[in-house]
Amino acid sequence: MIPYATAAEAEAALGRAMTWAEAAWFRYSAATPDYCLYCHNVVILLVVYTLAPLPLALLELRAPPKLTSPYKVQPRVRLTAPEFLRCYKDTARVLLLTVGALQLVSYPAVKMVGIRTGLPLPSVGEAAAQLLVYFLVEDYLGYWFHRLLHTAWGYDKIHRVHHEYAAPIGYAAPYAHWAEVLILGVPAFAGPAMVPCHMTTFWLWFVLRHVEAVDTHSGFAFPFNPTKFIPFYGGAEYHDYHHYVGRQSQSNFASVFTFCDYIYGTDKGYRYHKQAASLAKMKKDMAMYNNEKGRLAAFDGWKQD
């Protein structure tokens, strides 16, 4: 809650006029307790989870397979509308019961690490730098948590639920055992705990992290995806291989970037897979070229006759 009764008091404390964003934040949050602002995370998470995967889900359900198959990582796997709905309902329930319950008790930790709600709002540069740190911290810690979940006990008791989707979809990004949702919440919160931010940045972090998870689980690898311009970004094809291998997978554990897998040697299976796929494509293209060459030669011989 902002400790100023009027905008004039807030501007006097700032020593300047509020920006339009700060004025909007003042109007929205001035009379709202910090605890309620923190609990917005539950609503934000459910809204993003509902809307972010929806376009690709509709594309898979409604578009002709010949239109979408070139972009699907596993084109032979197509789910029905009831299967999409079941995934959504099961995941939303787990998110509500785990994340929602966690919100009720975790606010003291948020205050302790220094997540603030007052003025001034962070600059674009400050927020971008903090978000970059959060992605790097979450990616590194998430890599090791993910590897632990692929031990025999971790997989059988917890992680196998997430791997029920060998060909993942956007709605399956947070589809997991309730314990996994809580476990992987630790790397997500570690960054803001290390580098405290404003509540608006905190919200934005969880929005971006969830959108990224939806993207890597989407099952589609579009050539025009803007994430291709992000250095070391894994993407859907990279993470899809991890799901495709399943229980025995010891490759592609990183959630966002690829450098942890490269540094610790857990991308070898994927690199071998890519090399084998490239070689197979090369052989196929060469066969098509030879067939076409033979056809043209036969046509030329016919013309000469």
Automatic annotation (TrEMBL):
Keyword annotations: Endoplasmic reticulum, Lyase, Membrane, NADP, Transmembrane, Transmembrane helix
GO molecular function, one term: iron ion binding
One Gene Ontology term, aspect cellular component: endoplasmic reticulum membrane
Catalytic activity: a long-chain fatty aldehyde + 2 NADPH + O2 + H(+) = a long-chain alkane + formate + 2 NADP(+) + H2O
Pfam families: FA_hydroxylase
Main location: endoplasmic reticulum
InterPro entries: Fatty_acid_hydroxylase, Sterol_Desaturase_Related
Cellular location(s): Endoplasmic reticulum membrane
Catalytic activity, EC: 4.1.99.5
Bilayer-spanning residue ranges: 35-59
Keyword Transmembrane included in the entry's annotation: yes
Domain of life of the source: Eukaryota
Membrane topology: Multi-pass membrane protein
One BP term from GO: lipid biosynthetic process
Stretches assigned to the Fatty acid hydroxylase domain: 132-266
PANTHER family the record matches: STEROL DESATURASE (PTHR11863)
Family the entry assigns: Belongs to the sterol desaturase family.
Protein name: aldehyde oxygenase (deformylating)
